[in-house]
Structure formats: C-alpha cells, structure tokens
Write a structure and sequence with these properties.
This protein has 713 residues and is of the alpha+beta class. It is built from twelve helices and 40 strands.
Length: 713
C-alpha cells in the first residue's frame, strides 16, 4: 500500500513535502485595483458564448426513455466542511460542469470523466420575458434529447447531481422577468416543473439570468425576490434539491449591480462565479488574460475574497474558462509584446481549438504571464497559405488557460476553503486528458503527507478506530514506525538492518507484530505488547522479498514471503509455537499481501507475468489460484472491513493507485477514481479499522510517506 511517502534518513517529524507548488504571489501587476465600483457587464459571459455557438447546434435524437436516479458513491476521509456537501464524495470539493446543448453534438458527453464531477448542469431551458419556458428553441430540443438522457444516466451512475439551467441570457429578458410579478411566478413554476420532470430525476436548479441593473435597485430587488420565491418552493417540495445562481465576477464588490450577494446568500446553496471574459474590461482594445489570478481590476483572487466578505465559503464556486481569446495584433511577422494593441476584436476558441492551433501555427512563441498566472502565445498568420486556415495577414496573440494555470486557480479554491470550482464548459477540452488530470490532482480525495524520504514501500496495521501504525524501511536501512494515536502522528526508530518492505499486523488492542527481511535475508520478528517493544528474534528462512502477515485471532499469526524459488512460502504461529515453512506454489515477482477475517485468509501476489493473483485459505483448505488481471507494478496491498468484503490496491503501470474489490459474489472492475492524483514509487498498503473504512499508505513520487483515509458508503 503505497502512494506518496516520507523520507527516513534522519527523519524529522516536522518534515512535510508539498504536493503542489505554492500559489504565485500577487504581483503589483498591470493596473491592479482593489476598490473599484464594478458594474454589470454589457453582455454576460454565458450569453456571449451561447451567441458564438448558435451555428454549432444540430437537431438531436428525441429521448424515448426515462433517466435513472442518482446513486451514492465512495468517499475519502478527512473531507472539509465545504466538501461534505458534495454528492460525489470521492471529491474534496464541488466540481460543477456546464453541459451546453451544443456540446451534446456528436455525443461529446461520452468523453467526460463523470468521476471527477460532482454536478452536471444542463444549459439549458430558455425563459421568455413573460416567465414561460421556450419550447421551440435549441435548448428545448436538447432537453428532450436522447443525448441529455444519456448524460443524466452517466452522471447519476457516477453519483453526480444533474441540475437544469434556467437561462435568461438576454439582459432585457432577464430584467423584464424579475420586475414583473406575474413573470416571476411563471418562471418559478417553470423551474419547479423542470425539476420535478419524472423522466429526468433531476437534483437541482441553476439560475443563469444575466441581467443589468447598474444602480437600478428595482431590478436588483426583483431578482432577489425571484430567488427568494423559488427557494421557498424548492425547500417546501424538494428539500434535497440543490439551488445555485450564476453571478458576475465583480458582483460582490458592491451592492448596486444585478446581484446583491449578501441579500441572495440566505436563499441559495451556491453562487457560481462567472470569473472569466475579464479581458473585455481589464484590457479593452488590447489582448489580455481571460481569467487572471492577480492584477488589473477583475481577477480571481480579489473576486473570491470579495465574495467571502458577503457569503459563506461553503456557498462559493469559482468558475474557470476552458477557452481563451485570440486577437490580430499587427501586420508584420514576428513576436508581439504582451497586451498588444488589437487590430480587431478578440475571437474565443476552446481549449481543444487552442491545441489544434499549436499543431499548425507558424513562428510560434509561448510565454507565461506571471501576474495573471496563465499562458499566452503568439504566431504569424499569413494572408494566404496559412496552415491553420486563418489567413489573417497579421500576428495573432492568444491568452488562454491550461492545466498549470487552472491548477493555480484550484489552489486558490483549496486555500480559501470555498465550496469548489466549475468549468465553462464541458466538451471544450475535446479528447485531451490534461485538464481532467489537474482536477484529479487538486480535488480528488485528500492525501496526507507524513514526511520522508523513505527507503521502501510501507506496511500498515491498526488495532482500533483512529489508530494506525505505518512501518517503512528508512534510507538508513533501519525499521521506522509512524503511528497515529487519535489525531497526532509520531515517528520512532526501531533499529535493525532491513533489506525490503516490512509487514505488520495487530491481533488486538495494544498489540503489534512486525516482520522484516534482515541483512542475512532471514525472517526477523519484533512485537509491541501493551507499552513496550520486545527484542528482535530470527525465524530463519531465506527470503526473496519482504514479508507480509495476517492474523485471524488473538495469538494467531500467518506470515507469507516470496522464496528464493519465487514460490509463495508460509509459516504460522499458533498456541505460542511456530510451524515449519510450507510452500504454497505460485510464481511471485514481489512481496505478497495477506488479510484474514471470519476464519478465512486471503493472499494476493504479483505473478511472474505482472498480473494480480489471489488464493484463499478457508478453514484448513487452500483454494486454487485465480488471476485478477493487471498489469501491476510491485506487490499489492489488501484489506477487509466486513464479511466477504475484500479491497486490494496496486500500483498500475501508469504509477497511479488502482483498486478492485470483492463484495462476496463478484469482483469489481479495476478503478483509479480513489486517490487519482497519487503517483506511487512502490507498492501500496491498506488496512481497515471499521465497517466501510479503509486507510491506504504509499510511497509517493517524492519518496515520502503519504496517507489516504477512505469511507465506503
């Protein structure tokens, strides 16, 4: 059981290595502004993007079946208060993805990683100026499509919420609805009808009204009244439903815009901050960052802090762009300066489109904006023969977000402990995996650093709730022990000279038995009983790997090792007497792993061909070997938390943590959704101290010790 681990050469208990680089410091930067009376934009970000994509839509296939309800999922331990509200509890934070109707073309929804989402928002149903729903436009066609039903089914199968976006992206329409009591009532009724559509099994409502108030308090108060009335209806008839509102990046900087954040906060579960399209205001007439982290008037850091002054952190979602803007900036070939004067308006392009440009553009130059903490690029587009097909006859300057810049935004989310992040929009990354990987790195589970470096993978034991004992070979070849006693982790050196991963087990409160391969390649044993460690004792043999050990009862130990003949060998302790060594066959290529419960012992190995194999002892009879697939690197780690329940973890060929489990009848497929961001450099270890609880430790890519707590719901 390994993942990211800790160094043990002169181990310092306080040594912690960071998983991610620190957030870039806020530079003085271009026109940084801290107290500006910000106004509603002339056109909202989603309204602008929808207008760009109207021509992308094709008629979809009508749905002929109902969607499935949402199911629950596994959850990692140590979740924050904000993350505890996330339905997909393998995530530490909310990850809110918009699925616009045009993204359902060509079945793009089949490419999305629903295990890295918590909420999928269908964009959406258009609300007319009288508050009724438009049943003749493209949003309605998407609403009734088989593609949306498929999206809902995929999301619900992964444990995600699906919400419907009620959209009034025309400011005139939004203003008309919220200032007319009858239109407000119609809009509330339409939203509730969509939420309760029996064919959809929806989990909430998102309101995307991109109005303009700019000091007109009648409009602002009308929107607040609308949300209050909708919230009352939702709480009365669907208290389980999730109600969110999309709001502008600058909306929390004052109280005169369309959205009064303080007044709205009691009625919503979350604000989705549309923190993008900032260049239109920050750098008018010039190229500039779409969603800068720092600098200018509009930036993510100041906007999040402004929202925190008016709403609880658990109600704030930072929106990020999966797109950028390109400008023409000059007529002569060659690199242009940052924030160059534009000869034409910026043209948006998706992240997938950006990557396509990088495959064809001439005279490319790639840069990093240290203030915005985002990339930008330039290239030459000739007036004819442009391999990208633009033929602009000018320099092109692009500002966009990639995995690194999005990672800094996600660090801001984690550091401010807000509810989460979300993307506009799903499908904009095409088939690329790097943006999904960044979400996994920042938001999936909670790996806890325990220091390092360490010289081997760990092994883990537990004698009760909130008690963990991790054992590793240090870089000084001693046995090192780190234990959790309630809430505090402590290191101690246990001496010896060991040459492989240790193995440990507990058969009762206050008892630990640890086994190692010594410098003579023999099996050595040391026990902790109540308050003190005993002496080392040699148990002989010539080992070809580190040992593992299980215990089915007090005073019972079963030790398993790889022999020098690559077979599995076994020695047991019963009634204070050690048995002779026995061969159990097989062909091992790493340390075995063993667990015992209810009179049954299960052993897992990495076979000679690199796959996972399993053999079980039921009473006094060993079953046959069965293969569980692979390939895997290093030995596996196994645990059990209930009758017939088995969980086995392995380091995959991609160096990520992979997991299979047995429910008493069948084995699950391999999954890497738990601890997806972990990069292992040795085999993992796992233990369970209670029903539905698994703790995993690993040696990470930094050679440090890392820990993950998992709760299986």
């Amino acid at each position: 059981m390994r993942q990211r681990f800790i160094a043990l050469s002169g181990i310092a208990a306080g040594l912690v290595l960071s998983l991610v680089p620190a957030l870039p410091a806020a530079a003085a930067g271009p026109a940084a502004s801290q107290s500006v009376a910000l106004v509603d934009p002339a056109m909202g970000p989603h309204a602008r993007d929808e207008a760009r994509h109207l021509g992308d839509y094709r008629q979809l296939t009508p749905s002929r079946s109902a969607a499935i309800p949402r199911r629950t999922r596994s959850t990692s331990g140590a979740a924050s208060a904000a993350a505890s509200l996330v339905p997909n509890e393998a995530l530490r934070r909310e990850v809110f993805g918009f699925a616009p109707y045009w993204a359902l073309n060509n079945n793009q929804q089949t490419n999305w990683n629903y295990s890295l989402l918590s909420t999928v928002a269908y964009f959406g149903l258009t609300v007319n100026s009288d508050g009724t729903i438009n049943t003749t436009d493209q949003g309605w066609s998407g609403w009734t499509s088989a593609q949306l039903t498929d999206t809902i089914n995929r999301a619900h199968a992964a444990g995600d919420r699906v919400v419907v976006v009620m959209k009034a992206t025309s400011s005139a329409t939004a203003n008309a609805i919220v200032t007319d009591p009858n239109a407000r009532a119609n809009a509330v009724a339409g939203a509730m009808s969509a939420l309760n559509d029996p064919a959809k099994h929806l989990d909430g409502i998102n309101i995307d009204f991109e109005g303009i108030a700019n000091g007109n308090l009648t409009i602002q108060q009308g929107f607040t009244t609308f949300i209050q009335q909708l919230s009352n209806q939702v709480r009365q008839s669907r208290p389980d439903a999730f109600l969110s509102v999309d709001s502008y990046g600058g909306s929390a900087s004052g109280n005169n815009g369309f959205f009064n954040i303080s007044n709205l906060a009691p009625y919503v579960d979350a604000f989705f901050i549309m923190a993008y399209d900032s260049a239109q205001s920050n750098t008018p007439g010039k190229a500039g960052p779409t969603a800068p982290l720092n600098g200018w008037t509009y930036n993510d850091t100041s906007e999040v802090n402004q929202y925190l002054g008016k709403a609880p952190a658990s109600k704030i979602i930072l929106g990020v762009p999966y797109y950028g803007y390109k400008w023409s900036t000059g007529t002569g070939p060659g690199s242009t300066d940052a924030y160059a004067t534009a000869t034409g308006g910026g043209v948006a392009d998706t992240y997938a489109g950006v990557l396509d440009d990088f495959n064809c553009a001439l005279q490319q130059a790639h840069h990093w904006d240290s203030v915005a903490a985002s990339p930008w690029a330039t290239w030459w587009s000739p007036s004819s023969g442009d391999p990208c097909g633009g033929n602009y006859g000018s320099n092109r300057e692009l500002y966009y977000d990639d995995a690194q810049s999005l990672g800094y935004k996600y660090d801001l989310v984690n550091n401010t402990n807000i509810r989460g992040a979300g993307m506009w929009a799903l499908g904009y990354d095409g088939t690329s995996k790097d943006l999904w990987n960044e979400l996994g790195l920042k938001f999936v589970s909670h790996w806890e650093p325990l220091g390092g470096p360490i010289g081997s993978g760990p092994d883990l034991s537990s004698w009760g709730p909130n008690r963990l004992d991790a054992f590793v070979r240090g870089t000084d070849n001693q046995l090192w022990h780190r234990y959790l006693d309630g809430s505090i982790w402590t290191w101690e050196a246990l001496g010896g000279v060991i040459t492989a991963e240790p193995g440990a087990v507990s058969w009762g409160t206050g008892r630990i038995d640890v086994f190692v391969r010594g410098s003579d390649n023999a099996l050595w044993h040391r026990a902790f009983d109540a308050a003190a460690w005993g002496n080392w004792e040699s148990l002989g043999g010539v080992l070809g790997s580190g040992p593992d050990v299980s215990s089915s009862a007090s005073g019972q130990l079963d030790v398993f090792v790889r022999g020098t003949d690559t077979a599995l060998w076994h020695r047991s302790l019963s009634a204070s007497a050690w048995s002779n060594w026995e061969s159990l066959g097989g062909v091992l290529s790493a340390k075995p792993s063993a667990v015992a419960a209810n009179g049954k012992t299960d052993v897992f190995i990495r076979g000679g061909e690199g796959n996972l194999w399993h053999r079980s002892l039921n009473g006094t009879t060993w079953g046959s070997w069965e293969t569980l697939g692979g390939p895997i690197l290093d030995g596996p780690g196994a645990s059990t938390w209930g009758p017939s329940r088995l969980d086995v973890f392995a380091r995959g060929s991609d160096n990520h943590l992979w997991h299979r489990w047995f429910d008493g009848t069948t084995w699950s497929p391999w999954s890497n959704t738990i601890g997806v961001q972990g990069l292992l450099s040795a085999g993992p270890s796992a233990v369970s101290w209670g029903t539905g609880r698994i703790d995993v430790t690993i040696r990470g890519s930094d050679n440090s010790l890392w820990h993950l707590g998992i709760n299986i719901s």
